[in-house]
UniProtKB/TrEMBL annotation:
This is Prepilin type IV endopeptidase peptidase domain-containing protein. Residues 25-138 form the Prepilin type IV endopeptidase peptidase domain. It comes from the Bacteria. Belongs to the peptidase A24 family. The chain crosses the membrane at residues 14-35, 47-67, 73-91, 122-143, 150-168. Keywords: Membrane, Transmembrane, Transmembrane helix. Pfam families: Peptidase_A24. InterPro entries: Peptidase_A24A_bac, Prepilin_IV_endopep_pep, Prepilin_peptidase/N-MTase.
Length: 170
């Protein structure tokens, strides 16, 4: 996302400031949720649910970001949130012990951020989360600090995957 900021500054300063505000909230939310999830294996609603409202200005920034009204970009942001929420919801339904509903709710928020950039960013952010989580689980098994059945907090890996994808060029 950082690569889009200079072009937003040039083309649509209002959109630039919307994105900066959303990114500042994202940084705060990510730090809080990562610490809480590592400590307690919970992603509290009091942080996750307001994050939807804090990320919604990204839809407006996307619609106004090119200098002209782009409704398709706004729908991509909203669609990214809906698609990622649905993917995680299906994973939760298929194997409830493998994923908490807090992860499902967080996925919708992260989908809004990733959808702001592109569908490929949504894919790579999700893939990075599962890759990082899998590598961590594998490291636990190899070092004998856990087993294949060990519960790991997945929220930090979801957040890290999103950050990595946000840093990718368009």
């Amino acid at each position: 996302m950082t690569h889009r900021l200079p072009e937003l500054w040039q083309d649509a300063p209002f959109s630039f400031w919307l994105v900066v505000a959303c990114l500042a909230y994202f940084a705060w939310m990510s730090a809080r949720l990562a610490v809480i999830d590592i400590r307690s294996h919970l992603l509290p609603n009091r942080i996750v649910l307001p994050s939807y409202w804090a990320a919604l200005p990204l839809a407006g920034a996307a619609a106004l970001g090119g200098g002209a009204l782009d409704v398709g970009a706004a729908f991509r942001v909203l669609g990214g949130g809906a698609v990622l929420w649905l993917v995680y919801f299906v994973l939760r339904v298929v194997y409830p012990a493998g994923m908490g509903f807090g992860d499902v709710k967080l996925a919708g928020v992260l989908g809004l951020y990733l959808g702001f950039l592109s569908w490929s960013h949504l894919f790579w952010g999700t893939a990075a989360a599962f890759l990082l989580g899998g590598l961590f689980g594998l490291a636990l098994i190899v070092t004998r600090r856990g087993t294949a059945k060990s519960a790991i907090p997945f929220g930090p890996f979801m957040l890290a995957g999103t950050v990595l994808a946000l840093l990718l060029p368009a």
